[in-house]
Amino acid sequence: MRTIKLILEYDGTNYAGWQIQPNGVTIQQVVEEALATMLKGAVRVHSSGRTDAGVHARGMVAAFSADTGIPVRAFSDGLNALLPPDIVVVEAHEARPGFNPRFDATGKHYRYTIHRGARRSPLCRHYTWHVRGGLDLAAMERAAGCMVGEHDFASFRTTGCAARTTVRRIDSVGLAEEGDLLHIDVKGSGFLRNMVRIMAGTLVDVGRGRRSVGDVALLLTQPGEHAAGPTAPPQGLCLMEVYY
């Protein structure tokens, strides 16, 4: 039995997230159906995590096991011929037996992108959160600095998060301007449900002057006692890379 590791890029606009569910078409479903066609049998694909409806990925890592002699390259070139235009296998590799994309991961890099143009952009609507008005980037950077380190992020998760612990280590939170776009790059050991989107929403609140840098510090030193900012829309979020 071989273990094949895939690195996937996808546009999540038309999908109900990564994980298979009864109420919509998902990335996992489409990939498994393509593999089933190639291998002539059902295949279960395990991923490094779940992305919600509308969220994108440049470096989602997934893996599956199969008893096949098909060359590894076929799981990129051949599989891509069966996948729709909004999902692609960037790379395929043979992994060691027992490789688990989720539990073997040591960290992840997410990027949240904000469009700061005076008017909404039809071309950006599926990939950014349009935030009108100016943002105080200096204040946002100070607030982002509060998030770096090991903290209890209980205030930065949504209802339904089943994580056993809310303590997470964030290695960096960086802001980068690209014309009207503002990228928020977050790297860390792991994330709670909607954690990055709530971090982004909280930073935007700071940038708008709706909360102070001190308020953000309280969210981390007194977790659960204060409400974080809004959960930013899903389309601005992209999983950039998973580290091993």
From TrEMBL:
Keywords: Isomerase, tRNA processing. It catalyses: uridine(38/39/40) in tRNA = pseudouridine(38/39/40) in tRNA. The keyword tRNA processing applies. Its EC number is 5.4.99.12. The keyword Cell division does not apply. It is an enzyme of class 5 (isomerase). Residues 9-104, 144-244 form the Pseudouridine synthase I TruA alpha/beta domain. It holds the Pfam family PseudoU_synth_1. Coiled coil: none annotated. GO terms for molecular function: tRNA pseudouridine(38-40) synthase activity. It comes from the Bacteria. Substrate binds at Y110. The active site is at D52. CDD domains: PseudoU_synth_EcTruA. Formation of pseudouridine at positions 38, 39 and 40 in the anticodon stem and loop of transfer RNAs. Belongs to the tRNA pseudouridine synthase TruA family. Homodimer. PANTHER family: PSEUDOURIDYLATE SYNTHASE, TRNA PSEUDOURIDINE SYNTHASE-LIKE 1. This is tRNA pseudouridine synthase A. The gene is truA.
